[in-house]
Specification:
Layout (H helix, E strand, L loop, with lengths): L7 H11 L3 E3 H7 L10 H11 L3 E5 L2 E4 L3 H7 L7 H22 L3 E3 L8 E2 L2 E2 H4 L11 H7 L4 E4 L5 E7 L5 H10 L6 E6 L4 H8 L11 E5 H9 L10
Parallel strand pairs: 8-9, 9-10
Antiparallel strand pairs: 1-3, 2-3, 4-7, 5-6, 7-8
Helix pairs in contact: 5-10
Length: 241
C-alpha cells in the first residue's frame, strides 16, 4: 500500500511547526521548499493555503499561526482575547516593525522612539530590530523635540529625515498631522498608517485650513498596503511615495 501523499498544506504546517507555530507570509515564502511544487506562483499557493485551511488562523494581516498552537502563540505575544489594550499594543508594534523592516531593506537608517523600544514586533522588541532610538543631530532642539515622538522615521545616508510615519490604530489622527505640520520644512514624506476604514476620518481632518501647507504632502497607507510592501508581492502605487 502506498504511503499517504505529502501535500503542500502539510508542508506548510510542518514548516510552521519548525518556526514555533507562527510566521509572516514573507518568511513562509522564503523558507517553504516549493522546488517540487508544480506551479509558477508558489507564493500565491502558500497564501491560498493559509487563508483557506482551518488549521491556520490569522493573528494580523500577513502574520499566521497554527490553530493547534493558538494558546501558546497568544501567550507569547501577550495577546489577551477581548482585551483592547493588549490588541492595540501588539498591533501598533507590529506595524511599526514592518515599517522598520521595509526601511532597512531600502537601506535607510531606522528610528523608533525610546519609549517604544520594548514594544513587540512579533517575537522581538522594536529596540532589537531598529537602528536607533536616539535621533541623529539633524536639526535644532525644538524641532527634534517635535520629531522625537514620531512612530517611525527613515533617515537617508546624509542623516536627514527621508520619511515620517505615524501609526494610528485608535488614537487621534489630528495629533499626527500637527507633528507633520511642525516638520513641514524638511524635504520628507509624511505618512499616516491606519486601518482602511479610517481613511475618511483622515481626509476630513487633513482638509482643514490649518493643514493646507501639508495637504498635498501627507499620504495615507492602510495596513494591507504596508503588509504588501513587506511581503514584496505587489508594488503599491508609485504616487503614495
Amino acid at each position: 500500500m502506498k504511503g499517504k501523499k505529502y501535500t503542500q498544506t502539510q508542508q506548510v504546517i510542518d514548516t510552521l511547526r519548525q518556526q514555533g507555530g507562527y510566521a509572516t507570509l514573507g518568511n513562509l515564502y522564503q523558507i517553504v521548499d516549493t522546488s517540487t511544487w508544480a506551479t509558477k506562483t508558489p507564493q500565491e499557493s502558500i497564501r491560498r493555503i493559509v487563508q483557506q485551511s482551518p488549521v491556520f488562523f490569522k493573528i494580523r494581516p500577513g502574520l499566521w499561526a497554527l490553530e493547534e498552537c493558538r494558546d501558546e502563540v497568544m501567550r507569547k505575544f501577550e495577546l489577551k482575547p477581548g482585551n483592547k489594550q493588549s490588541e492595540e499594543q501588539f498591533s501598533h508594534g507590529y506595524y511599526q516593525g514592518l515599517l522598520v523592516e521595509i526601511g532597512k531593506y531600502r537601506r535607510m537608517t531606522t528610528y523608533v522612539p525610546a519609549q517604544d523600544q520594548n514594544r513587540l514586533f512579533i517575537d522581538r522588541k522594536l529596540g532589537e530590530i531598529t537602528d536607533t532610538t536616539d535621533l541623529p543631530d539633524f536639526t535644532y532642539d525644538e524641532l527634534k523635540r517635535k520629531a522625537r515622538t514620531v512612530d517611525v522615521i527613515w533617515f537617508n545616508e546624509r542623516h536627514m529625515p527621508s520619511d515620517f510615519y505615524e501609526v494610528e490604530h485608535t488614537t487621534d489622527i489630528k495629533n499626527s498631522l500637527s507633528k507633520f505640520y511642525e516638520l513641514q520644512d524638511f524635504n520628507s514624506g509624511f505618512f499616516i498608517v491606519a486601518d482602511a476604514n479610517r481613511k475618511k476620518e483622515y481626509e476630513d481632518k487633513l482638509h482643514v485650513s490649518m493643514f493646507s501647507p501639508i495637504e498635498k504632502r501627507v499620504k495615507f497607507l492602510n495596513y494591507s498596503q504596508v503588509v504588501e510592501l513587506y511581503e514584496g508581492l505587489k508594488k503599491v502605487e508609485v504616487n503614495i511615495w
